[in-house]
């Protein structure tokens, strides 16, 4: 049965909980700069994630680990200036929250004060529980992240599907319940079996957003540059490309180069 889409002037953490309760799916995309965020927000996306994937997409690093807190604040502040409607969630980068709850709180406060973001996201389950509690006690909304956690890539050694074995699946379910009980307003599940993700979504009252986690969850997130085809060498099963912008941009730029070389640009109407 289709569910009528309700119009929301501004998305908040409460809006997302209401959307889950009403059976309305949540749309989420990444953005890292003003211009792209303006387009994403204007298109009606509910949540914009200023992801630490900026480390890969914007800076060309192999992993998400190198990006710093200062760099995340720079990207987030650029995005926030573009937004009229979407909820802006900002990733806490690697090293800014894992080992010390006090450091986690300081990092989250800096993001909220210096970027104007609306919430933070961090990876992990019970091992980061104290950091989550400390951040929440300061009144800062927290989104959790379970399954494939890219900041732990060197621990896993691969980007393969997580929680296929029963022991890890049980642990993931326990962590999801813990995140809800601790006070997280939503959870991202990355690259886990669809059946398990659907079970988790049914077991908690907070929204569950999937990436490579099937359609039984409460919403979906993709990296914008993957979805519009600006990146062209990344081909996971879960990715649907809605454009092939890499080819379109390459063609346009090549045409510009030719026009300049052939003295066709600028023409008489394009000069003063």
Question: What descriptive keywords fit this protein?
Answer:
single chain, 272 residues, alpha/beta, 11 helices
Largest sheet, in brief, is: 8 strands, parallel, barrel
CATH architecture of the largest domain: Alpha-Beta Barrel
Overall, the morphology is: globular
Question: What's the arrangement of strands in the largest beta sheet?
Answer: 1-2-3-4-5-6-7-8
Number of structurally distinct domains: 2
Q: SSE string, helix = H, strand = E?
A: HEHEHHEHEHEHHEHEEHH
User: Span from first to last CA?
Assistant: 59 Å
What fraction strand? 5-15%
CATH topology of the largest domain: TIM Barrel
| Radius of gyration from CA coordinates | 20 Å
Number of strands: 8
CATH superfamily of the largest domain: Phosphoenolpyruvate-binding domains
The number of helical runs is 11
The helix-and-strand class reads alpha/beta
- The low-pLDDT segments are none
- In helices, the fraction of residues equals 40-55%
Q: Give the overall average pLDDT.
A: 94
The CATH class name of the largest domain reads Alpha Beta
GO molecular function: 3-methyl-2-oxobutanoate hydroxymethyltransferase activity; magnesium ion binding; methyltransferase activity
Subcellular location: Cytoplasm
Catalytic activity: (6R)-5,10-methylene-5,6,7,8-tetrahydrofolate + 3-methyl-2-oxobutanoate + H2O = 2-dehydropantoate + (6S)-5,6,7,8-tetrahydrofolate
Pathway: Cofactor biosynthesis; (R)-pantothenate biosynthesis; (R)-pantoate from 3-methyl-2-oxobutanoate: step 1/2
């Amino acid at each position: 049965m289709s569910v009528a889409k309700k119009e929301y002037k501004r998305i908040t953490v409460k809006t997302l909980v209401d959307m889950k309760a009403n059976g309305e799916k949540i749309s989420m995309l990444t953005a890292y700069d003003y211009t792209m965020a303006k387009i994403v927000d204007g298109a009606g996306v509910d949540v914009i994630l200023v992801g630490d994937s900026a480390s890969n997409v914007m800076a060309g690093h192999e992993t998400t680990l190198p990006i710093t807190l200062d760099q995340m604040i720079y990207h987030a502040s650029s995005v926030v200036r573009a937004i009229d409607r979407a909820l802006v969630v900002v990733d806490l980068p690697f090293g800014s929250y894992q080992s010390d709850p006090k450091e986690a709180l300081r990092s989250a406060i800096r993001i909220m004060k210096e970027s104007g973001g609306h919430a933070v996201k961090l990876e992990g389950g019970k091992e980061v529980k104290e950091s989550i509690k400390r951040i929440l006690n300061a009144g800062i909304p927290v989104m959790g992240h379970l399954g494939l956690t890219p900041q732990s890539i060197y621990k896993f050694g691969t980007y393969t599907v997580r929680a296929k074995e029963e022991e890890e699946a049980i642990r993931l379910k326990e962590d999801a319940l813990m995140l809800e009980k601790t006070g997280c307003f939503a959870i991202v599940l990355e690259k886990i079996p669809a059946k398990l993700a659907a079970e988790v979504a049914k077991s908690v009252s907070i929204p569950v957003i999937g990436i490579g986690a099937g359609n039984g969850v409460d919403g979906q997130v993709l990296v914008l540059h993957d979805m519009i085809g600006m990146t062209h060498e990344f081909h996971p099963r879960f990715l649907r490309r809605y454009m092939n912008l890499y080819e379109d941009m390459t063609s346009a730029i090549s045409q510009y180069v030719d026009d300049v070389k052939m003295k066709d640009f600028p023409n008489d109407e394009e000069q003063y």
